[in-house]
Design brief:
Enolase-like, domain 1, alpha+beta, five-stranded antiparallel beta sheet, 6 helices, single chain
Amino acid sequence: MPGVHVVGDLLPPPSLGLAHASFAEGLLVAETLAGVPSLPVDYAAVPRVTYSSPQTAAVGLSEAEARARGHEVEANSMPLTAVAKGMVHGQGGMVKVVTEAGGGRVLGVHLVGPHVSEMIAESQLVVGWDAEPSDVARHVHPHPTLSEAVGEVFLTLAGRGLHQQ
């Protein structure tokens, strides 16, 4: 109805029904009511996290979703145990990045493992800003951290892999 605004669980898909997505929806409603120009929530760029053991976190499209939407894709993955911090945690896990073929924009990032809910924010920016692997590969990931595996996947996709080819 005109003049009625809702957020969160009351919205049908593509709303995600997640607290952080609902917060963004609430900001959009407040800005709309205040007459502030605003962009709609980009649900593809909203991180989806499962707080389980192991944790899962994703932003953007899966490889299958990207292909179904007609993208020619390239994907690379790396186990978290391939980096020092992953070996220390000893809990397994992985990073997977889905891009447009030929070094095109990042379409999705998927993480499984310990503390990945803390690692997904970087990927939200990567997907939300239509970055390419070469854009991300220029940035140094700290050692020893689990995020090194994220950096390594982007390095590999940009043709600069250290531990992968």
